[in-house]
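Long-time lurker, first post. I've been practising inverse folding by hand and with some scripts of my own, and I keep getting stuck on stretches where the structure tokens seem ambiguous. Below is the full token string for one chain I'm working on. Before anyone asks, I'm not after the true native sequence, just a reasonable design that respects the backbone. If someone could post their per-position residues I'd love to compare against what I wrote down in my notebook.
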């Protein structure tokens, strides 16, 4: 089951990002704010390549290397989560407004779905306790092949050659 994407207050998140930059002694530049604004408006997991494509009308002003650096700062600020789904690129999603969720990924088309399962959550807490841990965080990724691609030969939600922009949450 896919979890619905919550609404993000972009202005509030930009203010939080600006405060983080100030606290770290980093300049608040138009490039940083433009990239952050685009990130907070994205509704799905994305790669830096997909983000650069979404910013292509501003590409002359923002290099791919700059986008990578800004994304890294946003991860440090706790506003983005970085995922390594075992594919050729890292995927990102913005954290503000999101509840905890896990992922299931299609090995053929790259589709990414989010889900929450209370039984899995309880099992993880139980296992951690049995091993003498207080669970602080976890990440669960399931990998498989989506039925849509297998039955129809194509998948409307993803494509193996996609840079990640259409991979849905």
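-- Answer (accepted) --
I ran through it position by position. Result:
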């Amino acid at each position: 089951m896919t979890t619905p994407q919550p609404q993000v207050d972009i202005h509030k998140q930009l203010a939080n990002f600006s405060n983080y930059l100030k606290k770290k002694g980093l300049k608040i530049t138009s490039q940083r704010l433009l990239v952050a604004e685009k990130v907070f408006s994205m509704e799905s997991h994305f790669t830096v390549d997909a983000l650069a494509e979404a910013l292509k009308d501003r590409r002359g002003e923002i290099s791919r290397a700059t986008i990578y650096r800004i994304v890294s700062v946003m991860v440090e600020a706790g506003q983005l989560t970085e995922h390594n789904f075992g594919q050729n690129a890292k995927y990102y999603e913005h954290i503000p407004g999101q509840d905890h969720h896990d992922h299931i990924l299609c090995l053929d088309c790259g589709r990414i779905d989010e889900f929450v399962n209370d039984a899995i959550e309880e099992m993880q807490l139980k296992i951690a306790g049995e091993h003498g841990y207080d669970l602080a965080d976890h990440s669960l990724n399931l990998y498989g092949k989506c039925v849509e691609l297998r039955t129809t030969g194509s998948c409307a939600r993803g494509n193996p050659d996609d840079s990640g922009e259409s991979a849905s949450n």
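A couple of notes from the structure itself: The first strand starts at residue 80 and ends at 83. The chain has six helices and five strands. Happy to go over any region you disagree with.
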